[in-house]
Amino acid sequence: MLRLRDTARALAAIPPTVVDLAIAAAVTWLSLSTAAGSYPPSGSRPFDALAVLLTSATGLALVARRSWPLATMAACAALVAVFEARGYWLSLNQLALQLAFFTVASRRGRGWTALAAAVVYPELMYSNIHEWVGSAFNIYLGTAVRVVAIGVIGDGARRLTENHALTADYNGQLLLKQRDREQRAVLLERIRIARELHDVTAHHLSVIAVQAGLARFVLETDPKTADQALRTISEVGSEGLAELRRLISLLRPEEDDSGAGADDRPAPGIAQLPVLVERVGLSGTPSRYAIAGRPRPLPAGIELCVYRVVQESLTNSLKHAPGSSVDVRLEYEPEHIRLTVSDTGPDGHAAARTEHPRSAVAQATAHTGSGVGLAGMRERAALYNGEISAGRTEAGGFEVRLILPIDACEPEAADPGAAQQPALNR
Prior knowledge:
about 65% helix; disordered C terminus; Heat Shock Protein 90; about 10% strand; six-stranded mixed sheet; 2 domains; alpha+beta
């Protein structure tokens, strides 16, 4: 079976021009060798030089059958007509004529096939009526059956070729669509990675900047506070490097096959929110974290989405409303989880900022953002069919509201104190 397939592939790889040359040479050689071997009674005229010339021209005309099927058909029909009219062997060149007719049927429409059949049939009949034995009706019918059979086979070959072309075109379109999907997947993955990098670096660097400014501000007057700020910088830096290492390990997993340098810690989730809020509180932003409803296990993707939204919201508060009070509230509902992060705005705690050194440092290190964070939060929410809104409050602060749908399920039994977690005040 493999040999047959290899042979078929080898034959299919032969250029069409070479195939046509071989066919034309074979038909010409067969006609000339047959004429040289015997001369039938139907050929009253001797096979002279003109007969050799006509026979050779009829066979060689098949070289152009693939490129110009109609012209080849016309040339073969004309040469055979002259050959028969001169009284040579009537059926000698019928093979070339029928092959030219088959080419028209296999490469042109049915209209051209019918026209070619109208030309071929009389020439074949003229030969068959002199050579075939039997009634005239049978000869007419037999010739018609032969012409129709050649036309039907040729038409079937044409439709098969068209189907193959349509299949190849369809496969090409599928391949293009597949490549487009792959490119789109790569683009979406790049966007996801860029969003992760933005969330990780923006938050951690903002906290580090605020804590570094605080440490410098109170280095001589309050060494204990400066030491705590430096410890926070160390913790935040290590945590940021760990998250970056985790992202890099996802991008280049082949380098971590041995397990060396791989970070096995899971992605951050809701359990890490208290630490996140507390750390922001140490940066001079009074913060409060509360949970309502009965906590339950959530998919890792939803937990990461909630964590990143809180992280980005707190980062924006550090940047644009330094020293303001921030409230983070997480509510568990039967079919949704609702998150609200709100601050009091840059003017909400002016007195506190002027009285506390941390607030003064936070205000000094504030800077404008690019707006990428809000777009990233919207993309995250859309990924889980959630809704997110962000905007100014009536009191002049800023509020981010996130609603994520979750499967309605019975919360696991938890200890009574977990149903309503005490608020963390900073």
